[in-house]
Specification:
385 residues; mainly alpha; four-stranded parallel sheet; 4 strands; 4% strand; elongated
Amino acid sequence: MSAADEDTPGVRRAWGWVGHLRDGGTTPWDDWSGQGPAGGRVLPGAQQLELLRRLNVAGAPSPTLVERVVAASAPGRGRPDLELEGSVERRRFGPPPVDPGHLPDDELLRVAAALIAEDVVATDPEPVDGPGWVRPWRRRYRLLGDPALTAPWRHELVARGRPPGGRGALVLVLGTDLTQMLADVWEHRCFGEGGAAWSRWLDSLGRRDTLPPRADLLHIARTWSARSGRRVEVVLDPTALPGLVGVRRLAAPPAPVSADAADLARRVSAVLGLLVDRHRREVLLRRALRPRLARLGGAPVVVPPEHLGWLDDRAVAMREGLLGAGYAVHGDPDLLLPRTRPGAVEPSDAGVLALALRLLLEGVAPRSGDDAGQDSTHDREETTR
């Protein structure tokens, strides 16, 4: 809407509210009755203004952040920038004006995710692929399977001069109970290519009665046995891995982030895909955003009870297939069976928005030394999708 084209009580009311929010006000649009002069060429959209109001409620956004929110767009699928109900007459075409207070959190998250993506790009972390040296006498290995296990341990081994691969490498397929592997794969996707929301992703797997490649340990073992003819071993007991790769000990892998944090990363990933290439997006998400989200804590995502039936059948089939094929299994094969854990069966838009507001208010730049251990050229090379 052009302020130069329209000067009505409704438009002046809208500009008055914009000025109120720019000054840190928290009055909802429905309760606002003041007026003010035009503060720009175009009135900001309802999504942007309600997001700014929520930021004012949650803290004290900087003047720079205030202007970024006012000028932001709402990318992705959803409604375009919306006009304020009561500020203009309803037009014959296009979406009707709205009361910003009635907008779903998902609409506000579209704007917030775009702003966080800009912040993440500005951090510009450099990838860390290793020390630049390799131990001449080391045990050859490849790590495949659950990305929550393979990525950090591969990263640690590379940093210690023990990169994966090489002639005669032992193929190690890492896993845990199937429910946890699904949660791990989904979180890994959120901090990479993004993709579907947790419930939609799970429902799709259930309808097709299939597993994501990184959680299907039997398929991985069969593929690599046929591909290379090399010995393939399955590792379900993490204490067995150091001896298999020729080290005394390995650090515990990072704990999962909260369900809301993973979903926020998924939304930011979609915007980052428009700003940087695929590899850079993963570096930014895992080295700039993940450490910040991990420090905030919260309940990790868990598989809802309605999915446990078919997952139990798949886990039993996986266990029997691995044992029947004669693969060496380190750990109790029953560890593959689904287990229930405390956590969140679904991220909530309200919780994700609360995290987004906190990140915007505090910034997402990683502290010195932060490293999620999730980014490595070798991680991409070893991926079985």
